[in-house]
């Protein structure tokens, strides 16, 4: 099968199209998917550079989010069934076929294409987790969403507005209109007024991290940290004691699924309700051919993209 293989830790330039990758076989509890759309995530960029924690060693078939049709199931799988369309995560998504755990596969909502369902878990559920169980957002509060034009960021802006928040989004200047069109009340270029946000969604790190910490209200403000796109930075006990009396909360969706399955089940129930209510809407990703995957990842790394990107095998 055709697939994109990462051959080094030198970045997207060493992501290569191969035509002879073996079609994987589903093991017990797994399904085999004929991939129709693979989601591109910032974590893919990090993996090409070997900076994603516990990521695979090159060479490996890249990608970990896909939607498509179930074409075979492993032993013990009762659902989904062959012929169903699902979206989910697993290794080797940038390929014509991939396997994923049956238990983690989510049905593509009826009336949606596979491509429109990309991002349901990695973007919408991540944003939901950051806002609700971890960020404890209440109506009327002010939320600062860093990288608001990105895949997770756009979902977060829509959700925060839905939950009655005042939303401030940050993004590169060329992306401000996108963030405004999602309903953000203010859009900024990675600056923020100190001490004004009840909740900060922080995925950027680097210089933006200090802005995020300063933006949170003293004593009650929460900062949910779920990404390091702009680089690793530190916060000290002295900071928290004397300078920034705030709540810093870490989020990794994979860890949440494994260690807090009850919270994940609540998030999935809320996601279904949001879909039914028309809050979570079909995605409109920018699509690339599988062969152009290296270009898509390079553009994401260079901050030249808005919203979700997908690869078509
Ligand atoms: N913890 C989890 O479970 C989890 C799950 C999903 C995603 N994430 C994280 O959430 C973040 C968003 O993921 P995504 O896939 O939706 O990506 P994305 O937001 O579509 O892309 C990253 C965006 O971050 C902004 N950015 C700011 N500084 C940057 C820098 N130095 N280098 C590159 N980009 C920079 C860019 O937007 P501007 O040009 O507007 O600045 C860029 O478009 C990532 O940090 C990702 O690792 C975490």
Automatic annotation (TrEMBL):
<dbReference type="GO" id="GO:0070402">
    <property type="term" value="F:NADPH binding"/>
</dbReference>
<dbReference type="InterPro" id="IPR013154">
    <property type="entry name" value="ADH-like_N"/>
</dbReference>
<dbReference type="GO" id="GO:0016651">
    <property type="term" value="F:oxidoreductase activity, acting on NAD(P)H"/>
</dbReference>
<protein>
    <recommendedName>
        <fullName>Enoyl reductase (ER) domain-containing protein</fullName>
    </recommendedName>
</protein>
<dbReference type="Pfam" id="PF08240">
    <property type="entry name" value="ADH_N"/>
</dbReference>
<dbReference type="InterPro" id="IPR013149">
    <property type="entry name" value="ADH-like_C"/>
</dbReference>
<feature type="domain" description="Enoyl reductase (ER)">
    <location>
        <begin position="11"/>
        <end position="311"/>
    </location>
</feature>
<keyword id="KW-0521">NADP</keyword>
<dbReference type="InterPro" id="IPR011032">
    <property type="entry name" value="GroES-like_sf"/>
</dbReference>
<keyword id="KW-0560">Oxidoreductase</keyword>
<dbReference type="Pfam" id="PF00107">
    <property type="entry name" value="ADH_zinc_N"/>
</dbReference>
<dbReference type="InterPro" id="IPR036291">
    <property type="entry name" value="NAD(P)-bd_dom_sf"/>
</dbReference>
<dbReference type="InterPro" id="IPR020843">
    <property type="entry name" value="ER"/>
</dbReference>
């Amino acid at each position: 099968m055709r697939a994109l293989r990462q051959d080094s830790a030198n970045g997207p330039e060493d992501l290569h199209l191969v035509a002879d990758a073996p079609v994987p076989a589903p093991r017990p509890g797994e399904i085999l998917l004929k991939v129709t759309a693979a989601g591109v995530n910032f974590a893919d960029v990090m993996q090409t550079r070997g900076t994603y924690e516990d990521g695979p060693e090159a060479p490996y078939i890249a990608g970990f989010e896909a939607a498509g049709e179930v074409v075979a199931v492993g032993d013990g799988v009762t659902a989904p069934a062959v012929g169903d369309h699902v979206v989910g995560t697993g290794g080797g998504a940038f390929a014509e076929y991939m396997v994923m755990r049956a238990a983690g596969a989510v049905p593509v909502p009826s009336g949606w294409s596979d491509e429109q369902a990309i991002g349901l878990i990695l973007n919408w559920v991540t944003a939901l987790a950051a806002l609700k169980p971890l960020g404890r957002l209440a109506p009327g509060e002010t939320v600062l969403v860093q990288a608001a034009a990105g895949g997770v960021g756009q979902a977060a802006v829509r959700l925060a507005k839905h939950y009655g928040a005042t939303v401030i989004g940050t993004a590169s200047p060329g992306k401000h209109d996108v963030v405004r069109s999602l309903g953000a009340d203010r859009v900024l270029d990675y600056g923020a007024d100190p001490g004004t946000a009840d909740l900060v969604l922080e995925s950027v790190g680097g210089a933006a991290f200090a802005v995020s910490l300063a933006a949170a209200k003293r004593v009650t403000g929460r900062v949910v940290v779920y990404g390091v796109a702009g680089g690793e930075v530190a916060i000290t006990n002295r900071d928290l004691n004397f300078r920034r009396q705030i709540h810093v909360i870490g989020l990794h969706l994979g860890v949440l699924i494994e260690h807090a399955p009850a919270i994940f089940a609540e998030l999935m129930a809320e996601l279904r309700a949001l879909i039914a209510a028309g809050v979570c809407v079909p995605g409109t990703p920018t699509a690339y051919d599988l062969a152009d995957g290296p270009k898509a990842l390079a553009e994401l790394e260079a901050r030249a993209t808005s919203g979700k990107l997908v690869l078509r095998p």
